[in-house]
Every structure is written in C-alpha cells, then in structure tokens.
Amino acid sequence: NGFLSNFSHVGYWSAGMHFPTSEHHFQCRKVMWATGDARLVEQVRRAKNPYTAKSMAGRGRSSVHVMDSAQQEAWSAVSEDHMRIVLHAKFAAEPMRGWLLATLPARLEEWSGWDALWGRGPDGNGENRLGLCLMHVRAELRAADVASAALTQP
Question: Does residue 60 have a pLDDT over 70?
Fold first, then answer.
C-alpha cells in the first residue's frame, strides 16, 4: 500500500498514543465514539495489522463492539470529521507532510475494488471519501504554509 493508504505501515503519535497505521487510528476513534471504552480502544490499537483493527471495530467475528443501525447512521454522519482528524495527525510531520503536499495539484482517489464509500468501488463510481478527505487536509496544510510564509515576509 502506498503512503496515502490508511493501510500503509506509517506509524505516528497522536494524543500520546502510537498508531501503527492510520486505519488503526480511525478504527480506535470509531470504537471510542461508539463505546467510550478505553480498554476496547486499546485492544484495537494493538491489533496485529490494519485489517484486524478494522474487523475488530466493525461487524466481523472478532468485533469488540457491534453498532446497531441507529449508531451506524450516526457514525456515518461524523466519520469524515474523524477521518480528517486522523489524516491531520498522520501528515502533521515530515516527511509525510511534504509527500502529501507534493501530490498537488492532483486529484486524489482511493481505487479500492470493494469500497464504494471511502474509495471508487468496483465500478469506479464510488464516493471516494478518503480521497476527498486527503485533498481537504492537503489544502489546509498548504494554506497553513502560505500563511506562515506571509508572516515571515518583511
């Protein structure tokens, strides 16, 4: 997986915790939002890989919590906000920050063959929420760089 993928093994620190991937971080936020149980969050954070972290926070056999349909709908309404928080943490420092900024002005797309919500899906017509969140974070980082540069000009 490339560095933009949530499944790429690019570890970073956020809120005093180390996350091995941004998928771990996102799934931890999901479990904390749904349960408020730090013990369950820690189980997800320590998952052996991002696929297991996703399964633990989802509907799989190893799930630590299964959301009912009302919770699932409520999560869907806030999940992009959580993803942007995760991506800000992932791309806050170099070299990740520079790598993301170097993708300008490209349109970023998650070409997942199965995920039509966060990616382009099997038919290429998915919502591409991950790509949109990446571009949003990239624009915010670029704006911060421009503002910082303006402050240092005589």
Answer: no
